[in-house]
Amino acid sequence: MKATSDRILRSEQAAYLEALEPARDALLVEMETFARENRNQPISDPEVASFLAVTARAKAPRFVVEVGTNIGYGAIVLARAAGETARVVTIERDPELCRTARAFVERAGLAARIEVRELDALDALDALDPAETIDLAYVDCVKEDYPRYFERLVPRLRPGGVLVADNVLWRGLVAAADTDVPAAERARVDALRTFNRLIVTDPRLRSVVLPLGDGVAFATRV
Ligand SMILES: C[S@@+](CC[C@H](N)C(=O)[O-])C[C@H]1O[C@@H](n2cnc3c(N)ncnc32)[C@H](O)[C@@H]1O
């Protein structure tokens, strides 16, 4: 059972869905435990990871960009599911987390296909090779910067490419009345509302926001 309570599902529904799953992968379970025991590192929810894996398997992307690496959990899920020719660039600014992520990537046997870039996310996105189009982007980083990630990633998505973003309903607050949003969450909530509006109205995309985990946006470039 996950350590964090689900934001959208009721706990009995989450337990039911978890029990439906086949035996979990040992390395991912170890990473979930490591994250929990190391100051509750904010790795993706297991059901979001399953969603990423199905998406990557369906799209068979060649080039994947993940914004926000943490300990490398999402990057490993994406690289495994995307297939043997896929390359994943994942961005993390914290040096210690980069070291941890690289160690897990090494243990997963994926060091040749996952590059952990130790950089600020916006700088790293600005520095991506403009000639290289992105087949799958996973946004899971600074919530206040989601609209800026959107601006940088959407023009680089190839037609049919996919953009997935986690936490877009942010603990239920994004859909809450303004009076129920604590002042400390205001900037995050405003940015996520802007991002969700962009992702569902931008004519370059077809998108849906799913009540999965903490809210997942899924878009494809037309
Ligand atoms: C939610 S975690 C990523 C989880 C990961 N995607 C996964 O699937 O397990 C977000 C990460 O972004 C990193 N981060 C925060 N600010 C950043 C920035 N400005 N640039 C790059 N990384 C940043 C944090 O250190 C944190 O590890």
Keywords, please?
alpha/beta; 8 helices; 222 residues; globular; Rossmann fold; single chain
| CATH topology value | Rossmann fold
Order of helices and strands: HHHEHEHEHEHEHEE
Strand order of the largest sheet: 3-2-1-4-5-7-6
Instruction: Compute the average pLDDT.
Output: 94
Number of strands: 7
Oligomer designation: single chain
Radius of gyration: 17 Å
Measured as a percent range, the helix fraction is: 40-55%
Bound molecules: S-adenosylmethionine
Coarse structural class: alpha/beta
- Please count the helical segments: 8
Q: How would you sum up the global shape?
A: globular
Largest sheet: 7 strands, mixed
CATH 2nd-level architecture = 3-Layer(aba) Sandwich
Write a structural description.
There is one protein chain. The protein has about 220 residues and is α/β, with parallel strands linked by helices. The protein has one domain (about 10-220): Vaccinia Virus protein VP39 (Rossmann fold). It is built from eight helices and seven strands. It has helices spanning about 10-20, 25-35, 45-60, 75-80, 95-105, 120-125, 145-155, 185-200; strands at about 65, 85-90, 115-120, 135-140, 155-165, 205-210, 215-220. Helix 5 (about 95-105) links the parallel strand 2 (about 85-90) and strand 3. Helix 3 runs parallel beside helix 4 (about 75-80). It is globular and about 50 Å long. The protein starts with 10 loop residues before the first helix and ends with a strand.
